[in-house]
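Follow-up to my post from last week.
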Amino acid sequence: MAPAFQQLESMRSEQEIFGQVRRVLIDLFELPPEKVVLDANLYTDLDIDSLDAIDLILELKQITGRKVQPEQFRHVRTVGDVVVAVRDLMQDETAA
Amino acid sequence: MLDRGSRRFGTGLSFVTFGVGGTLLSVTLFPFLRLISPDRMIAQRRINSAMRRVMGLFIWFMRSLGLLTYELHGLERLARPGQLIVANHPTLIDVVFLVWLTPDAGCVVKRALWRNPALRWPVIWAGYIPNTEGAQLVQDCARVLKGGRSLLVFPEGTRSVPGKPLALKRGAAQVALASGADVLPVTIVCDVPFLTKGSHWYRVPARRPHFTITVGQPIPAGRYMGENQPNSIVARHLTTQLAAHFSRGIESVLRASAGVLVTNPPEAHSASL
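User reply:
Got it. Predicted complex:
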């Protein structure tokens, strides 16, 4: 596969993942859609607490269909971090 | 009425009395009650009822010194066991009032107490819960409620910031969801800033503070558990509802007391200083 195409492919899937993550955040936490942007901080900008984070991880488990370890989300701070974490999970899945 | 200087002295005296008295009881009465009790539950009941008396004595002490006045409404509603009692938290002595007024309740208190060599054991014996964070705290709280005991929680997590809207954390609502307990809101209003967050105890107000403590109507578990929504949403709704309840209650008490002040201009003037 040509590198440029590969890049395009991963960009597209990241866009898709962002769409799904965004949907989950809006539904789970009643957030106004315009606030859910990639660099929004979950804790300070979106008022998500540690208990919400557990609910979020459970919901992402549904989407990815993979076992999600809370440790994989330890360093997650922004919506963009969630997208990256989910993408990494899905890549692990294709590799496996 | 006592002048400001005397009230400052009295407030200092109360603090010293509370600190010294509390420490003394923690190494005498409370261990004694634990020792003479055949099991943990009996010790817990005895220590709780001793703590209630001590807290009542302390409020009586402050009132007798002319440091504060208070009025209490709807106290009978505190008696039912197994309720999640949630209160707003304007002053340092709110917990003293509520422990005194509630027949038997566990209480979420500062985790720093578990590092205090004197107070550590009494809070453990009384079945209190340290305010750690997250899922563990919610589970610990729910266990108390499921065991049929009431639990006292300040959902703000710390004292209110004067002049700012109440900022409730959603942990208390999560405890309600995890336990299925009825929620009993208690609104505490102090008509002048007194022992507030970030102020020193010696900044006593120009006027003697008056506390109004109102036990509201319980919110039955069925009312919020019935929502066919994820916990994260129900916790948000319940928290918003509680914040609105407290704000309304505070406002109506303050409006009523402002009405009194208007008829008494010199006091109104000094209170605004």
